[in-house]
User: Which sequence fits this backbone?
């Protein structure tokens, strides 16, 4: 790459993480460390019922027997789970009746993030649940949604107000003992979002949660549960940011989705946790378990994710296609730069007849980062006429980064139809020179090329998110062609 | 190679990999008779001997050989060969016309075949009486039976024959090199735009092989040299009708010069007891195009090895294939595309339709050497399984040593789309008709890509055959 | 229009052009021929501003401006167009969108109003007709999945839309069949006028039967070894480059 291009890329890739500020706010935290007492303390602070405490303790017992997985294509120093704080909340009582009661500091914080909760009141079309450190601070449009029977609230509220639903579905998709990080989350999860869309209801607006890690030394362990009853529809968006801190912070979330007959759930993520600085210092460790169960006939779950942040990402949003004719989709753009490492992909488990899955994965690696796609398509013996289409494209910027593809395919029914395509290409001076020869500036050329590459995923995102995703990509990759 | 007397060759005598010179031939240019001077045979002796050794050393491959893993040719090992002899019980010329699909003989003209020059070979021997070269205008191009060209075009042949085939890694191509008798030699000079389509028909005399008798072996061998900027269309049409065991082991080598455009077809519509094990080798110079289409519908066992080497930058190849198998047919395509230099494109689209207990094999290797940057390769293989007992084995094999390339492969093996099938039937379309529509839709793009009406008709007919 | 003086160019330490002189006047069509490795494509790329070639000596002036001081996009804005030997694929980027961005960036630099979508579409559809190209091409990603012939036509199509002052065709004829070659030639000939210069780099004489040049130059070892009229191309076709090679050798 020519020197000007390199400069451009450097500039592009090394632009400041603009969400890196911290908020001066009084926090209510508990001591560092992890043991039964801490869990009891945490549960007590949250005024939880006994059954939930039991559930946590059981998960904790399980977790202690488990070992951290090491099969992913990533390496990081060992995490000291005793050195982290498992609860941090803004001190002002988070139970709010209206936005006016929200700490103005917090409102300011979300405004800086581009999510003005006040404006949300005027904007139609998106309801927001804001989670600050571990606690949901505000949920907009609650009443309006309530009229339709839709529940959209923090997980803690759901435990209090809808215990029967939480009991019925929590852990039914991702069991507490599913994996190391899911078990950890089950033991110490603090808050998250809860969505319930009753039978036949089409949620009229996008539901959105914004996650923000603020306090130092804290992990964030949120838990989201989305239930769409027969014929229901909901589109859910999630966004995440964190301050720039030198230490690594742990984020181990669990997301469960249940779709009954004819239900459809779209789950979109723009993940922009702090990725660490350009030398690889700091950043979020993002170990997330996301799974959706298409329990009913003709149900459909779609994961769309744009992953630009985190020092380490370990994430495989999956679909269990249990109901006949159910559909699972996974659209992903994962961008890694500098020292970032991402190992992401999906699992599509075909159990029911005529189940279909689509996987579109776009990986972009720059700097000295490593970007892996890891996906499993499993066709169980009873899954007659299952279909899968997988497409994994990797784009390399420069020659010090790596792209890897690990597709696993297990077929136990001969009627299955599977297609897999994979490409690896290098954004090169050829493409940039071609655009420049036609009169485009270098910056425009890079944006054009990268956005073209990601187009199939971006078009699956709701409009506002697509714009945000494009901007994020521009920022993450500024000056990274090499 | 002791016995080289033409006259002593009889149908009953086992051949034991002997080389036979052509008999019963005459030149394309009316009168001259084939020279049978021994010098001609002498210059091929080395080639023949080398490959006879290669074949005898490795023998008929077993399924332990990775290249033959799914194609069991064990039966062939026990066969004793004799040269099939021509000109016996040959049917009239009409079945050879390009328009002929199945029972109807539409004729070249009715199917937009354009001008056609036809060379017919019976049991691997040129049959001038069945051939029709009246439409051939040479433009400085040379079109002749190999048996003749071995003498008349010796210089060109000597420098090229067998060079693309290389060493003995293709056992049956070696068998051919040791035993070939006749075939086609084509030389198209620089910038010649050959308007006449060249139709090469390989048929059999139809003689029966009774138990314990030696098996008829036919080894046609062709060489096409297309010089810079020239354009030509060649159809190799195998339609051996024989009773009992019969092995056709053809080899074709194609040299595509700079900026030249070659459209090539290979059709197999042999009768049900014929084994057909063929190898085609092509080498492309810079900026050239080689578009090869393969239709297999006949034979008991059809194996096609196809190797295309992209040796000059800016060249492009398209490998387009359609297999239609039924009963216990086995259809095996082994393709290899070698990207030797940068900026070349390869496209490969193979589809199989398998019914009854038919088996299909696809092994598609794409080899991109380290210097072949900017390679653009697309490979797809789709199989449609129409019965529970039909079977497809697919193995895409990408070997990429360059880092700035785009290579994709896609493979599907599946049955008819039940939902679409039901949808059609719910609209009142009977089961059989619905199947037909869907199967034709499946094969549609491959057929369309042939882009030459008579061949599209042959392909269509192959597809409808499986449905009847 | 274009003045190249004593041009020396290196790439990866190898000398490719060694004191090349060439003048192209508006309205002229110059053909550049020569054996493999003579520097034909290098010349085309250097004029367009490819950075991996290092100009060690000499000058290129385009309409009075020092071309070597300009960025590739500035050269494009000034009216230099290169039809690439290997047109680059840009997956996911719509052909029309790309071309509109290009046209408007050129227009903006030239102080013209940007074209709106309607006017632009009208313009491109007219140009498509000339080249016998299908409208579906407009909605496909730039060169992505195009056959070799389609890519070359797309280059000429872009040229027709951008209406450059100097068009450089780098082996645009390579790999084309005779029908596509004629379409490409028609596209070029339609643009020939007094205000526009052409530099046609080709490996095959055949193209020059359809785009008849005013001048033919033979590039050999990084220099113009011979120049002449269109009859020179025919002579080369007949005799090959050996005479020129010999002359060059004996001249040393």
Assistant:
């Amino acid at each position: 790459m020519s020197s000007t291009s390199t400069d451009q890329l450097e500039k592009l890739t090394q632009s400041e993480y603009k969400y890196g500020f911290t908020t001066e706010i009084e926090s209510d935290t508990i001591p560092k460390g992890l043991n039964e007492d801490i869990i009891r303390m945490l549960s007590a602070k949250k005024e939880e019922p006994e059954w939930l405490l039991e559930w946590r303790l059981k998960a904790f017992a399980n977790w202690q027997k488990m070992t951290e997985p090491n099969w992913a294509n990533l390496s990081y120093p060992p995490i000291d789970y005793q050195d982290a704080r498992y609860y941090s909340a803004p001190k002002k009582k988070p139970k709010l009746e209206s936005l006016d009661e929200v700490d103005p500091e917090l409102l300011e914080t979300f405004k800086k993030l581009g999510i003005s909760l006040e404006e949300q009141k005027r904007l139609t079309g998106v309801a927001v649940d804001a989670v600050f450190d571990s606690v949901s601070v505000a949920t907009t449009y609650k009443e309006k949604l309530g009229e339709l029977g839709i529940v959209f609230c923090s997980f803690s509220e759901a435990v209090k107000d809808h215990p029967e639903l939480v009991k019925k579905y929590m852990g039914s998709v991702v069991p507490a003992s599913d994996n190391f990080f899911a078990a950890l989350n089950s033991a110490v999860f603090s808050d998250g979002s809860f969505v319930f869309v009753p039978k036949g209801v089409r949620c009229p607006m996008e539901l959105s949660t914004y996650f923000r890690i603020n306090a130092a030394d804290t992990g964030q362990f949120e838990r989201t549960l989305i239930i769409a009853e027969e014929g229901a529809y909901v589109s859910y968006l999630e966004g995440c940011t964190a301050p720039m801190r030198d230490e690594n912070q742990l984020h181990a979330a669990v997301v469960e989705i249940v779709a009954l007959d004819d239900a459809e759930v779209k789950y979109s993520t723009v993940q922009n946790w702090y990725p660490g600085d350009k030398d690889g210092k700091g950043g979020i460790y993002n170990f997330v378990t996301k799974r959706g169960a298409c329990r009913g006939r003709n149900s459909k779950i779609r994961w769309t994710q744009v992953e630009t942040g985190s020092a380490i990402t370990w994430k495989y949003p999956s679909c269990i296609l249990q109901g006949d004719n159910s559909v699972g989709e996974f659209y992903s753009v994962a961008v890694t730069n500098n020292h970032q490492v991402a190992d992401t992909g999906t699992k599509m488990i075909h159990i029911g007849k005529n189940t279909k899955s689509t996987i579109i994965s776009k990986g972009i690696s720059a700097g000295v980062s490593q970007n892996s796609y890891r996906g499993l398509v499993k066709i169980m013996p009873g899954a007659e006429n299952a279909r899968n289409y997988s497409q994994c494209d990797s784009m390399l910027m420069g020659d010090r980064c790596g792209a890897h593809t690990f597709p696993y395919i297990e077929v136990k029914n001969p009627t299955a139809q599977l297609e897999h395509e994979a490409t690896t290409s290098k954004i090169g001076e050829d493409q940039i020179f071609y655009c420049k020869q036609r009169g485009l500036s270098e910056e425009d050329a890079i944006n054009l090329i990268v956005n073209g590459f990601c187009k199939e995923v971006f078009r699956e995102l709701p409009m506002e998110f697509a714009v945000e995703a494009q901007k994020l990509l521009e920022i993450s990759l500024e000056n990274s062609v090499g | 190679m002791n016995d080289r007397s033409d006259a002593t060759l009889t149908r009953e005598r086992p051949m034991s990999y002997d080389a036979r010179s052509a008999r019963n031939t005459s030149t394309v240019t009316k009168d001259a008779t084939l020279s049978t001077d021994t010098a001609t045979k002498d210059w091929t002796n080395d080639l023949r001997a080398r490959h006879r050794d290669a074949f005898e050393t490795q023998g008929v491959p077993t399924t332990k050989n990775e290249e033959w893993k799914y194609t069991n040719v064990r039966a062939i090992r026990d066969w004793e060969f004799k040269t099939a002899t021509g000109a016996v019980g040959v049917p009239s010329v009409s079945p050879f016309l390009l328009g002929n699909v199945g029972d109807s003989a539409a004729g070249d003209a009715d199917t937009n075949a354009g001008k056609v020059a036809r060379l017919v070979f019976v049991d691997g021997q040129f049959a001038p009486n069945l051939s029709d070269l009246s439409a051939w205008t040479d433009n400085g191009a040379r079109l002749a039976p190999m048996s003749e060209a071995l003498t008349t075009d010796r210089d060109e042949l000597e420098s090229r024959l067998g060079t693309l085939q290389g060493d003995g890694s293709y056992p049956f191509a070696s068998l051919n090199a040791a035993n070939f008798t006749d075939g086609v030699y084509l030389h198209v000079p620089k910038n010649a735009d050959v308007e006449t389509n060249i139709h090469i028909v390989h048929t059999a005399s139809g003689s029966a092989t009774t138990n314990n008798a030696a098996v008829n072996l036919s080894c046609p061998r062709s060489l096409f040299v297309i010089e810079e900027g020239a354009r030509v269309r060649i159809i190799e049409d195998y339609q051996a009708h024989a009773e009992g065991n019969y092995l056709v082991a053809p080899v074709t080598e194609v040299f595509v010069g700079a900026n030249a455009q070659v459209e090539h077809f290979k059709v197999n519509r042999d009768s049900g007891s014929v084994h057909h094990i063929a190898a085609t080798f092509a080498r492309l110079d810079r900026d050239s195009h080689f578009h090869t289409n393969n239709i297999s519908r006949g034979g008991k066992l059809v194996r096609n090895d196809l190797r295309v080497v992209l040796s000059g930058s800016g060249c492009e190849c398209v490998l387009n294939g359609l297999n239609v198998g039924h009963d216990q047919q086995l259809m095996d395509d082994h393709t290899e595309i070698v990207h030797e230099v940068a900026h070349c494109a390869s496209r490969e689209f193979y589809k199989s339709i398998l019914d009854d207990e038919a088996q299909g094999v696809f092994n598609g290797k794409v080899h991109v050497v380290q210097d072949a940057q900017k390679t653009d390769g697309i490979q797809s293989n789709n199989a449609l399984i129409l019965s529970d007992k039909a079977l497809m084995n697919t193995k895409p094999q990408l070997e990429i040593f360059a880092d700035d390339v785009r290579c994709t492969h896609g493979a599907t093996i599946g049955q008819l789309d039940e939902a679409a099938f039901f949808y059609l039937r719910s609209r009142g379309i009977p089961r059989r008709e619905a199947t037909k529509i869907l199967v034709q839709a499946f094969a549609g793009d491959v057929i369309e890509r042939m882009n030459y009406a008579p061949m599209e008709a042959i392909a269509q007919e192959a597809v409808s055959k499986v449905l009847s | 229009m274009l003045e190249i003086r004593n041009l020396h160019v290196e790439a990866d330490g190898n000398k490719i052009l060694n004191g090349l002189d060439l003048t192209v006047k508006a309205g002229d069509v110059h053909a550049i021929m020569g054996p493999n490795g003579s520097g034909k494509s290098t010349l085309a790329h250097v004029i367009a501003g490819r950075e991996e070639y290092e100009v060690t000596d000499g000058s290129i002036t385009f309409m009075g401006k020092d071309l070597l001081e300009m960025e590739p996009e500035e050269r494009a804005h000034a009216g230099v167009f290169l039809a690439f030997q290997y047109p680059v694929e840009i997956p996911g980027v719509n052909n029309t969108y790309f071309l509109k961005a290009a046209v408007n960036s050129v227009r903006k630099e030239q102080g013209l109003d940007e074209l709106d979508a309607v006017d632009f579409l009208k313009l491109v559809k007219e140009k498509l007709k000339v080249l016998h190209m299908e409208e579906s091409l407009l909605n496909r990603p730039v060169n992505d999945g195009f056959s070799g012939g389609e890519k070359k036509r797309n280059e000429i199509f872009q040229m027709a839309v951008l209406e450059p002052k100097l068009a450089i065709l780098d082996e645009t004829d390579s790999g084309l069949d005779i029908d596509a070659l004629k379409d490409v030639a028609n596209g070029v000939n339609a643009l020939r006028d007094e205000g526009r210069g052409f530099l046609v780099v080709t490996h095959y004489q055949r193209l020059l039967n359809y785009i008849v040049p005013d001048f033919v130059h033979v590039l050999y070892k990084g220099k113009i070894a011979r120049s002449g009229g269109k009859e020179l191309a025919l002579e080369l076709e007949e005799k090959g480059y050996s005479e020129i090679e010999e002359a060059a050798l004996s001249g040393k």
